[in-house]
Each structure stands twice: as structure tokens, then as C-alpha cells.
Design goal:
Immunoglobulin-like; membrane; Neutral Protease, domain 2; 5 domains; Aminopeptidase
Length: 944
Amino acid sequence: MPKTSTSKAFAAAFGILTASVIGSIVTMIILYETEIATMNPTPRPTLATTTMAPPPIMRLPTNLVPENYRIFLHLHLYSKIIEEVNVTTPNQTMLFTGNSTVHFYCAETTRSIYLHSRDLRVYDPLVKNENTKKNIEISNMKHHADESDFLEIQLTDKLEAGMNYSLFLAFKGQISQNLQALYLSTYNEGFPHSKDNTERFLASTHLQPTDARRLFPCFDEPEMKAVFDVSIIHRENMMALGNEAVADSGLIDNWEVTHFHPTPKMSTYLLAFTVSEFTPTPSEHDRVKIQIFARPEATDAGHTQYAANVTGKILMFYEKQFEISYLLKKLDQIALPDLSAVAMENWGLITYDEGVLLYEEGVSSQLHKETISYIVAHELAHQWFGNLVTMKWWSEIWLNEGFATYMSTLALDEVEPTFKVRDMYIMHELHGALEQDALASSHPLSVPQENIQSTSQIIEMFDVISYYKGALVLRMLADAVEQRVFDKGLKMYLSAFRHGNTDQDDLWGYIRKAVVDDGGHTDVAETMHTWTNQNGYPVITINTTTGEIDQKQFLFNSSLDSSFLWHIPIRVLSNTSGTSLVWLKTRSAVKDPFISKHGEWILANVNCTGYYRVNYNPDNWINLLSQLESNRNRIPVMNRGQLIDDAFHLARAKILDVTLALNTTWFLRDEKEYIPWESTVRNLEYFVLMFDRSEVYGPMQLYLRAQVKNLYSYFRNLTDNSEIPVDHSLQHNQITAIDVACSNGLQECIQRATWMFDDWMNGNDTNANSIHPNLRSVIYCQAVAAGGKKEWEFAWNKFQTSSKTSEKDQLRKALSCTKKIWLLSRYLDYTLDPEKIRLMDVTSTINYIATNVAGHGLAWNFIRAHWDYVSQGDGAKLIEGVTRRFSTQFELEELKDFATKSDLGAASGAVDQAIEQVKVNIQWVSENKDTVLEWFLSRTDDDI
């Protein structure tokens, strides 16, 4: 069913009498009147509607401190279409009604109550002095018509400092169809397009960062923590899950009332509930009841079993690591068909996009287990970092997200040691953060609170800087002070601030205490402020002849000046000595560990523990490249990847010659490890984006074909490219080998991929797919790219009829690989129909199409024509993806024009960064095109 507009069938089948919704629900009347009766209500005042306000003050005053909420919510949603329902008013089933009482303490005398409310009709306000039990008369209630979302309640008498009060409010709202606040999700039970197939409906919440105010009026700021006592009234055939375990439930007039135990003290954005027909799978833990909920068909098929296997292990790892037990008695995780985020860490009820939580044996890639473990580990880490201890304001969201990202790699290594992928995930985070943070429009980890006020500004903070850079600077600090000392500091920090809110200096204080207790002298706050309060990062340049080392900010636009300095811990290695730690805290210095003799080499940032780039004098670069050619294993594998990444990015910033960067890829003919290959493919992807519409592209393909040939042959001989290696890193690299070989025209690869796809497409039973799940994504894409209408429509049909989440995701991506422009145009049109492409998948689908050079221009025209709809997903990621290939003045002017004429919302920062990046691209292409063409021509053989 459509989620952006309720269909006529939905309205007709689900519509119920207005009177029954508003006035005749017995349970709601009982609960509502019971609550009011205790307050001795005064006559209802005349209430103003919305009032226009001057430029808004975006933060709530701090004179009122919420302590607990008592919330009743009544959902009228059915779980499926009910043909017998009498229809008089459409869409009433999408209504929710409720009331709440918030108890609060008055810290400073006032005549007004400010709290948040948005998209709700709020009525029947009652204010009571809980000390005297007397009501306080209300003179007016108004909504502020600005971004503050303030609901202001004006009183005839003062609220006195030191006294306790309560505020009762009734409210009603609509269940959202755009994955915000309390929203509708749909799924199908039964085989698609068969008689037994039925569409089902569920309700779920997603309140981060500022959508609790769309569910009930509240003090919707992370520092205003409170206890939540929640009751949900819902259809009797459905089940409600909440943050806490069910305290009691019962039926009243065919409505089920589910009352949950009160939550711990927590922020509003962590409140959550779902109402569905989902079924559970248990996970083992000696104390906590852990369950994984999913569609009944998915549960019955065992698709939740892998998540169940790892969840208990990860939770116990964290309990041991932090020496603080998980506080609740239960932990539910639910795989939702629709979720705007990958996952959300709601305390006790973690919600996931089902594609990242379900593992479908025989359909999901073996590598999908990594994704499940990593994301579950991330969300479980939040139960401590974010839920138990929360940042004071969204301007330091990295204290939540950076820690969860940092801890997830540790947990993944612990619970799945055979995967051996921790280094791979760290490199993924490092490269993602360094790329974004090289733009002048990047932001510091810790931004002044006054700079982050509106919801759109808050949403923009949820980016790779907060997630990846946050994790990486924590890893750097742990390496510098030693892991055991860092861990001790974290334990003290969590213990000291449990149920509280913190800023970065609270963290640095406890790390510093652990350092001092261990006999160390590092000034943690002074050091870390250079990494958290400044945007960007340094490039250090080492002269191995003199031992001189200096630092400056690394920016793609090298013409910009920066006075930033960092305190940089540098792990250094040479071919004649072991690893040592050296600090650079000044602009430049001379250090003995950086001096080498003729023919020797120095390697800095060993194992990539630091968040910076490294440049060397020409002789040292030559010696390092010679080492890679003669015996690459002398250089740690992470640094083999990082040398490539540093060289290419230094060349993009005009610090290093582009030919030296290209020379770092020469040794790959004999490289089997994934990290160096991934680094090369990702960096040359920039060359592809810049040059695949020019004469450079042909010689570049010839070179890549030659480089990948040995790797492709290695996996062909090892697995016949139909099975997979045991080692996870090799599994990743097998996919890389096929992708690079086929994409760059290695006929043996293209023929193999086409044959495998044809065998499936033309077989007697198309449900019998012999392509290994690990290889399906790359084989599907390459076969669709090499094929035409027949292959595309077969893939589309399989996408529509498959009930397997993993299979649908692989096919959805493969459909974007066709070279037929008319098919790509059709596919873009499909993204406007939520019955074809779910709203949550629109952004990634369009970005897949934009990655294809044949779809690049189509995608850009399409998002400009349909911005209001497509930006409902992640508008920032959409801009980032669609503009990656922009490298002409014409494209820049079009982007600027779009920026001035469109309501960008939370994508405004992404557009600013895109404009900056396009300027860099234009200049880089102009300066390097001829040199790059000459280099590739000199290293290619037309017979390859």
C-alpha cells in the first residue's frame, strides 16, 4: 500500500466512525476521566490557536525540570484490511489519541510553561501544584509558528521555585506515512502475487532526534531526562512492545490495554513502542530476557537465528568490558520492513531495518553476518554510550555515535574472531572520515551549542564525522595512552555519569585520571581539544634525510590557509628498527626516529592508529615503493592500503605528483590482500568518475584489466568463481576481483557472469539459483550491464516476487547497472511509486543509478524535478551521491541554481560540501587530465 498517501482501498477498508474514534472508546474515557478527576479541573480556558513569534529562541528554558511522564496512547490501526468495517469517515484508522501527565520540579519562579509539540492537536490542559494539591488557572495556550515547536502555557499564578507540579494534556495526531515519529509500516505474508498473499500493517516509532514532540507534548531535549510510564491501547489481535517489559495487560470492549513497567530515567528520543503481529526468537543470556522479533514468516524460516546467536554474546562482552550490567530485565530487537535509519538504539527496544538484521540461509551472503554483528554491536554499545550516559546536546552527538562505532569493531572481533575483519572495518571508517574532513565545509566533532539549534541543523550532525572520526580519535587516544588505561578511564566515566548527561571535558577528565593513576603525564583535554574543537586533520611531512617533520591542515583546496595545530601521536617504523611513539605538538620539529640512511625507509602512522595523512621526501617514497615491489609483506597490510590512499589524496590536493600516486598501484599485480585492493579501487573510482566521459577512460580500463588479471585468475583457480574462500577477507577480495575484471572489460569475466545469470534466467526452475549468495550482487550487476531488456525485466520480476530481503536488495542494486538509458529512466520513475520502491529505499536506488555513467544525468534531472518527494528519505546522501561525478563549470552552475531555488532542509550542508567538491573536481581535472592520460597510455597493452 502507498505510504505517502493512503489509498482509497485503505481508506474504505479501514475507515471507522468519527464518533467512535473521538468519543466512544470506553477504555480511553475511563483512563482520561480518572486522570482528570484527581486534578479537580477548573473550567477550560479559551485557547488561542497558532501565534506568530519573532525569530525563535530554539532551546527550552531550564526553569522547569521534568521527572516523570504518565502516558496513554490509543492506536486505531488494524493489522490488515477489514472488509466488514462500516465506512463513514476516511482514514480514521490512521488516528491516534492520548493524554499525558508530566510531573516536574520548578527550579526558578515563572508564569509560563514551555514544552515541545508538533503536528498534534493539544487540548484540556490542567496544571496542578503537587505540594498543595491545588490547580493553577491557565490564561492561554499557544503554539509558536516557528522552528522552535514550542507549546507555551501561560498561567494566572506563578509556579514557585522549589515546588513540584504536574501538567495534564490531551492530544490527538495522525500516524505518519513518511517513517517519522509514530508511523505506518507494511509488509506481505504469503507468496507474492498469490491468493494467500495478504498485506499487513504495523505501527512503530522513530523519535530521534526531535520527533518525540510529534507523539506527545514533552520537554524534548536530551538533557531533560525523565521516567516514562506508558500504556498502549490497541487492537486485540496485535501485540505491543515497549522500552520496558509488560507490567500487565487486559481486554476492555475488544481493545487490549498493554501497560509497561516504568523506564529508567532517559531522554525523550529513546522512547519507543511497536504494535504488530510479529513473533520472537530468544537469545541466550544468564539474566536478561533477549528476543528478536520479525515477521512470522521470517521467524519461522529461521532468519532471526543468527542475530539471536550473537546478541547475547555481544551484550555479555559489553557488561564485562564496562563492568556495568545492562540495566533492564529485557532487551527486544525488532526487524522492521520500514525504517528511515539503519537501526535505532531505543533503550530495551532496538529497531532495525530488517535487511540488516535478518540472515536468510542460502540467500544472504556469508559476509552479511559481518554486517549483522557490526550493527547489533553498534546498537548494543548505545545502551551504555547514549542511553545510560547521554551527551548534553546534539552538538556533541559524537559522544554517542563515535563511541558506539569504536566499540562495535572491538565487539565484532570478540564474538566472531574467525572473521578477522576488524582492520578492514577500521580502514573503511578511516577513509570515509578523511575524505569528508578534507573539505573546508566540514565541521568539528564538538560544535558550540549555539550553532546547532534547529532540527535540520541537528540532523546534519549525524554524519561520517560524528560516527567515524569520533571513533577514530578515540582509537588514537587509546593507542597513545595504552588500551588498558583508556578502558579504565571509560569505566570510571560511565560509572560517574550513569543516568546523566556529559560533554567532552567530562570524558577527558576521567581518561586523564586513569593516565595519572598509571603514572602518566599526558594532558588529555589539551591534546584532544586539538582533535575535537577544530575541523579537519593534519598532513605531516617527513624529510628522512634531515629528520625534520612538520604539520599543516590537509585540504583538497590547497589555496586555503589554516593556522590549526594538532597534538599528534606518531607511531614510526623503519626497515632497520621496531616501532616507537613520537609526539609532534608544534608546527615543525627535528626528530631522530625520522632519519634514515641512503636506501632505507621510514614508515609513519604504523597500523593507521593516527587520524592524519603522511607525506615523505621523494627518496623515501621511492624506497617504500621499491619495498612494495620486492617484498610487500615488510609493510603492514593496513599501511599498504594507507600508502595508496595517502598518495592519491595528496595528489588531489596538489601536494604530490599524480604520477607517484598512480605508481603506488603497480605492485598490485601480485597482491592478494583485500585492504590494498579496496584502497586502490576506491581511489581509482574518483578517476573513473572524473574521466569516464573522456578519452582517458579507455587506457585506464586497459591498465586495470592488466592489474586485476592475476587476482581474477587466482580466485578462478581457487574457487572456479562459483564457490567462496574460507577467509572473510579473501571473500571480500573475490568480489573485488570479479567486479574490477568485468567492469573493465575482461571478456573471460563478462562471459562467466553472463553464463551464470543466463543459466538461472533460462532454467526450468528460476527459484533454483545456483549462483553463490556471496557473488550474486556482483554477478547480477555485471550480467544486467552486459544484457538488455530481457535481463532487466527478468531481474525486475524477481525483485517484485521475491520475499527474501537480501535477494531484493541485491536485485534492486543490479537493476541500476543496465546501460540502456530508457530502462534507467523507467527505473527512476518507479522510485515515485512506493508500491514498487519503498520510500526508505528511494535514496539508495537513485544513487545506484547515478553511479552508472549512463544514468548520471538522468538522476540529476530527476531529483531536481521531484525533490519534495525524494528528499523525504536522506536528502543529504542523495545530493552527495548524485553530484559525485560533477566536474564541469556547467554542472557547478546547475548545482548552485538548484541550491538557491530549492528548500534543502537538512540537505543544505551537503549541498555546500558538494559545491566545494565540484570546484575541487573542476580544477583537478583541468590540471591532471593530460598527465593521467599519458601515464595510462605508457603502461597499457592493447592485447590485454
